[in-house]
Structure formats: structure tokens, C-alpha cells
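About this split. The held-out portion is used to measure sequence recovery: a designer receives only the C-alpha cells and must propose an amino acid at every position. Recovery is the fraction of positions where the proposal matches the reference. Here is one held-out target exactly as it appears in the evaluation file.
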């Protein structure tokens, strides 16, 4: 297959060239003419990107308390429509479960349903002292990273001693640690005060998880990670100060990386006062509008390593079941909307450039989590994962036209510029002109290489 007439975008820049695909890999890039009988895809007027790599996804999530209604077919199909050709999801280690069993169960869920490629992190919830050596099995099995939480009792929470001990062991063997940072005591106190005052409606959600809870936990986790000599990745930073702390640590030589999400760049706490506060229940919550501007500025400075969706496809019926933020599952659908939103409100408005978008959403995540240059690259030998994005059409986002099962989108009615025209996964067209051409099971598990150095 030959991709012609498009503008190629990499993290380093843009160029006009053709791409030849042979089998599942990129064979050549340059001034290429089609072979006799070779299929040709015309990318005229469009941009050709490496397939996006989403480093933070929750498909078919089971927390032990709540469970989303989607599966790997639904989730990865939505990803494909959004130009995401690789998702990095999570295997959850439930209490009393061995890592290898948690990983095997998750791989079995994905194997026959995934339409795009996937890697896995491990949520570590049960690793008593003396068993840290079991983390080595995760490296052997190609797990991309581990995840720890400073909140969420009783299922995920890790105290400081556990954070230090596990990060020290992980760093020694080449596992990067992702951390959800919110001070559990501050969150608990804020929620209890609201509960005592009878203010448990969904509009109160943002007040139950104050910005200080995130900022303090980021500060503490960075300190512990430095003591542990461990690489650390702070997920879904929702405040500018969180990113600043990570950047300051990186400038001291610490392998520390910040992630943010489209929802924190585009939405703010005023959404809770609108007619659908249930659309915006997530952790951490939406912040004051000033934080959006601060995050965009830090993206422009290059202080944020990656953007992930933190996609979580809870159905609208689950989000409205109780009317209390205390018992409403948190998370938003976002796989399908990330690329058009970031193009419209980032690239087209001059906040970031196309190469920045590719760095943040493809090359950067692939490097951080051991998938580069197989993923996140437009170069010979890389997997033929490509997105052809047409910048000209304008569309209105609507849940009725999207492919998650949530029954809503937090961006209902938003106008976006451009659309995904074609998506190719390992040489196979899976999306073409709004039609899905992929098949369940085409996606493959990607064993990740250990973390070695800063991208």
C-alpha cells in the first residue's frame, strides 16, 4: 500500500513524502511512485500521523466496587475511530491475587475482542514486605509500568511506606511507577464535611477533592520517588502547580514525568453548575478555569510528557443512579474525541503545533512505556500504524454519533474542526471515511521494554 499526497507529521517536524507499507510495517518513506497494481491511498489535503498511543485507558474496568459496561471490542473500536491505534490499559491485581494471574485474566479479556494493539500496566494493590521480587515477573512478561494510588480506600490506597518500598523495588528493575496523586486525608475530610452539611449532590463533587489534595500528594510522591531512585509518572495532572512540581524535579535530574488529559485542558468547574453535572464526575475533578490556561501554557513550554484520556466508559444510568457524589463512579469517555479536540483547541488555535501533538499523544508515550520505535514513529521498520486527518470538515460532537456506550459525552454540542479520514493498524485499514473496517481480535498484546532513560 502507498500513502500519497499527504503532509507527514512527526515529533520532530513535518514533510511532504509518500509512505510505503509492506505487510505490517512501514517499508519506505520518500519520493515514491506506486508499483504496478499497488493499492494507493490518497491523503491529499490531509495530515498523516503515526497512530496515537494512549498511555492511560480503562476499558472494561472492574474496581471491585464499580464496573463499566463496555468490553474490549467496544473500547478499542472507539479508540480506532479517534485515531488511537495503541491503548495502554491496566491489569488490576485484586487482594490475594498473583500478578501473573491478574495479567493472564486481562489478556484473556482482550485477546479475541481488541481491534487495535494494546499494552498493559499493572495496578499493584497487594505486595507485602518481602515479596518485592515478584515485580521481576512483570518485567519478564512485558508489563509497561505499575500504578499506585495515594487515595481510594479500601481497594487501591497505598501508604507512604508502601509507596517508597514498591517504587524502590520497581526502579531497580526498570519499571516506571505511575501514581494517582490525591491526599487521602484531605479528600476524606472534605467529603465528610460536605456529608455532615447535607451537601452530597453531584454539583458538590469538585469541592470534595480540593486542588491542595492533588498538589500535596504530587509533592510527597516526587520526594519519595527521589529517595527510591525510581522513575515516576504523575497521571492526570489537573493543576498547573502539579506540573510545575514535576518539572522542578526533572530539572534536578529526577526521572519524573507529568501527564494531563483533554478534560483538564478544556473543561472547568463551572460545568458542575450546568444541567448535567453527572457528565463531569471524575477524579481528580474539574478545576477553576485559570488552571486550564496554566496547563496549556505548560504544554507550550514542553513541561508535560504525555496526554492520556483516562477513558472510563461508565453508562449514564450508572452516573445518575444515586444523585450523590459519594456513590457515583468517576470517569469520562474520551477515546474517540481526544484527537479532534486537541487539533481544534490546541493546534488550530496556535496553542501547540502538530509536532507537539504527535509528541504528546504518540511518540512520547511510546518512548516512556517501552514501545518505541515500533509504535509512535513514522520510519521504516515501525509498525504501519497511521492516521490520516483531514483538517477541513467541521462537525458537532454528539453522543448519538460516537461509539462508546456511555450514552453521553462531556463535549456534547462542541464544534470541532477536521475529522479522522483513515486509520491503519499494522498495515490494515480499520477506519475509512467514517466506516469501521476492523475485526475483533486484530489487536495484539505488545510486550514493553523496561524503562531505561528519559525520552
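Reference sequence for scoring:
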Amino acid at each position: 500500500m502507498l500513502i500519497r499526497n499527504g503532509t507527514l507529521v512527526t515529533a520532530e517536524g513535518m514533510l511532504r513524502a509518500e509512505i510505503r507499507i509492506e505487510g505490517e510495517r512501514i517499508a519506505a518513506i520518500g519520493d515514491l511512485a506506486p508499483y504496478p497494481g499497488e493499492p494507493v491511498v490518497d491523503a491529499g489535503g490531509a495530515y498523516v500521523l503515526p497512530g496515537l498511543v494512549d498511555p492511560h485507558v480503562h476499558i472494561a474496568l472492574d474496581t471491585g466496587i464499580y464496573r463499566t459496561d463496555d468490553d474490549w471490542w467496544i473500547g478499542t473500536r472507539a479508540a480506532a475511530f479517534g485515531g488511537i491505534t495503541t491503548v495502554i490499559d491496566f491489569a488490576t491485581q485484586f487482594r490475594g491475587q498473583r500478578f501473573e494471574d491478574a495479567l493472564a485474566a486481562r489478556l484473556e479479556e482482550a485477546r479475541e475482542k481488541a481491534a487495535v494493539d494494546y499494552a498493559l500496566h499493572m495496578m499493584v494493590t497487594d505486595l507485602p514486605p518481602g515479596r518485592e521480587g515478584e515485580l521481576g515477573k512483570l518485567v519478564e512478561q512485558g508489563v509497561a509500568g505499575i500504578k499506585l494510588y495515594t487515595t481510594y480506600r479500601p481497594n487501591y490506597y497505598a501508604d507512604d511506606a508502601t509507596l517508597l518500598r514498591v517504587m524502590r523495588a520497581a526502579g531497580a528493575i526498570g519499571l516506571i511507577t505511575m501514581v494517582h496523586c490525591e491526599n487521602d486525608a484531605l479528600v476524606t475530610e472534605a467529603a465528610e464535611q460536605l456529608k455532615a452539611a447535607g451537601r452530597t449532590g453531584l454539583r458538590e463533587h469538585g469541592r470534595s477533592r480540593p486542588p491542595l489534595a492533588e498538589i500535596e500528594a504530587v509533592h510527597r510522591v516526587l520526594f519519595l520517588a527521589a529517595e527510591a531512585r525510581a522513575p515516576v509518572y504523575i497521571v492526570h495532572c489537573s493543576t498547573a502547580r502539579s506540573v510545575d512540581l514535576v518539572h522542578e524535579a526533572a530539572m534536578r535530574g529526577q526521572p519524573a514525568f507529568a501527564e494531563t488529559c483533554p478534560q483538564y485542558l478544556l473543561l472547568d468547574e463551572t460545568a458542575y453548575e450546568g444541567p448535567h453535572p453527572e457528565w463531569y464526575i471524575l477524579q481528580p475533578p474539574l478545576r477553576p478555569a485559570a488552571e486550564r490556561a496554566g496547563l496549556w501554557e505548560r504544554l507550550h513550554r514542553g513541561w508535560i510528557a504525555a496526554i492520556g484520556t483516562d477513558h472510563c466508559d461508565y453508562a449514564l444510568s450508572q452516573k445518575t443512579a444515586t444523585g450523590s457524589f459519594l456513590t457515583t463512579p468517576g470517569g469520562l469517555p474520551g477515546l474517540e474525541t481526544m484527537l479532534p479536540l486537541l487539533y481544534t483547541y490546541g493546534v488550530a488555535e496556535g496553542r501547540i503545533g502538530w509536532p507537539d501533538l504527535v509528541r504528546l499523544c504518540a511518540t512520547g508515550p511510546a518512548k516512556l512505556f517501552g514501545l518505541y520505535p515500533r509504535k509512535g514513529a513514522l520510519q521504516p521498520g515501525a509498525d504501519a500504524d497511521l492516521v490520516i486527518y483531514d483538517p477541513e470538515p467541521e462537525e458537532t460532537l454528539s453522543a448519538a454519533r460516537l461509539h462508546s456506550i456511555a450514552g453521553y459525552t462531556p463535549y456534547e454540542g462542541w464544534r470541532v474542526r477536521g475529522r479522522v479520514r483513515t486509520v491503519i493498524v499494522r498495515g490494515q485499514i480499520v477506519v475509512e471515511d467514517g466506516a469501521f473496517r476492523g475485526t475483533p481480535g486484530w489487536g495484539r498484546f505488545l510486550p514493553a521494554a523496561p524503562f531505561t532513560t528519559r525520552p
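Annotator remark: The chain has a mean pLDDT of 97.
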